[in-house]
Predict the 3D structure of the following.
Amino acid sequence: MTGTSAADRARALFCLTTAIYYEAASEPDAGQRAVAQVILNRVRHPAFPASVCGVVYQGPHSGGAPTACQFSFACDGATAHAPASLAWVRAERNAAMVLAGYVYSPVGLATHYHTYAVTPPWSRSLVMTAVVGAHFFHRWKGYWGTAAAFKQHYLGREPLPGRATGAAFAALPTTARPDIADGARGASGSGVVMSATVQTNAGIGSTPAEADRLPPAPEILDRWKDTGRLR
């Protein structure tokens, strides 16, 4: 992202944080970074948009039907509810790490994932690469799933993240929430307002009320818990 604008960096951080939060808020750091890695893998793959927000909101904000959402939270109304603040800070921290160059290598060239709660038909045509937390990760078969295919350059020009800029997010004073007018609320020279690091892994909310506001976590079968690998 070297050389991109402050607005692009702020929007990319916000969109990636939003995706991590609504897809993996109750996951450990490894699970959140795995989800983030898939999103950045898509940014580098020519089958997907060449921006972070473009990947996260592909479908609902690119002229597609609501059923075309690549990530369910973008269409199911989840973002109408304010995120739990400490959980958001942790998701933002993991998003910032990934955007700064951290690579979560266990998922490999995965461009797709799903939880234990579902078995989508498309998963049968892909190659499973890893199990991290509550998610199975997959890559394409053939050339599309090889390193040579990941040749798309980051475009920048991040689109506004649509409904995710709703009023519910105004309660998060430390987040780099994109602003409709100028790209980043409270932007510094870098255009990104970094939250304080949260020294926690599983204890996401500081109170029961905070934890109750997290997106629901899928049930994990005992044989898969904490494995982080295929069996």
Q: What stands out?
A: Residues 84 and 210 are 6 Å apart (CA to CA). The chain has five helices and three strands.
